[in-house]
Amino acid sequence: MTTARAATTKTTTEEAKKFSRSLGSVGEKEYVLENLSMLMASGMGVVQALNAIASEVHSKPLRRAIAALTDDVEAGLPLSQAISSSRLLPAYFVSLIRIGEESGQLPEHLQVIVDQQQKDRAFKAKVRSALLYPSLVAIVGIVIGIAITWFILPRLADLFSQLDADLPPLTEFLIAVGAFLQVYGVFVMPLVIAGIVALGMVVFVLPSTRHIGHTLLFNFSSGRSIMQQIELARMGHILGTLLRSGLPLTDAFRSLREATTFRMYAKFYDAVYEAIQAGASFSDAFGADKKNHLLMPLPIQQMIVSAQQSGRLADTFLRIGQIFEARMESTTKNLATLLEPFLLVLVWIGVVMIALAVILPIYGLVGAL
Length: 369
Fold this sequence. Notes:
Blueprint: H1 2-22, H2 26-41, H3 46-54, H4 60-74, H5 79-86, H6 91-103, H7 106-162, H8 169-205, H9 211-218, H10 221-244, H11 249-259, H12 263-277, H13 282-287, H14 292-295, H15 298-310, H16 313-368
Helix pairs in contact: 2-3, 2-7, 3-4, 4-5, 5-6, 6-7, 6-11, 7-8, 7-16, 8-16, 10-11, 10-16, 11-12, 15-16
């Protein structure tokens, strides 16, 4: 029963995220929420604010979504229910809006959503920026290696054959690769590039299969550390904000499960949610699986357990979010530096292989003379 419900929730969440992405850019949706927050804080009604915002939106699908949202609100639906029906925002943001309506703090809660979206977008931009230089180094190194193997080594092969030189296995292998590329390279290389891009999409991008890449990264300590920082920062901000707003703990954890992009953390949150719903404490929920420390370090588990006992869960989760957000900032700044030695070793290995393939036969000829 639990598995079926989790699968249904996951499917619904993925469909909602896909639909939300089709409405327009993240920046435009942030613009809608930020202006809705400001206009309502100034005393303007929801319908008036939505009509004012719709006139400034460029995306036609987003304009249609706002129009449908306005119609629902005019028909008497609460804003949270109308947004839930429009699938403009994920479920955990809808929970914040509903609580804002009930507490009379809707503008403030809308601003919390905008801040969270801006944090997510800023982090993704920093990761892309940090990976740009290492990616360029790797691409340039691969292109140069292929060019040497494709164009230069076959010409040297003719020279070596005329001199009747004994070629080492490495040189013979690279010359054979070069000869193959000379004949079939025009057809093979586009297929190889397309295959690499497709593999990257399947392993790291497509929502239905990217858990494969996440699992691979999680098996490396550095990858696991980065994933931990991302997820625990998200967990701290979402749970802290929802609990401070008055949402019950079980509902907050359900919203967190819908927000995560990592399957292993989704399963972890499902297990914790089920345990808490059954009346267990965090201590029991965390101790149910000895591997949970890989997802959440023991000191963080102890912080949460102590916070539950002292009744300071919301403040503790927000503190955890701040701690791991700061670590995440430091990691993204140093990501290029962390990857540089690995890339330099790969480039060095490639250069050494090609250099040995060229130098060893020449050295053998000189020794024979």
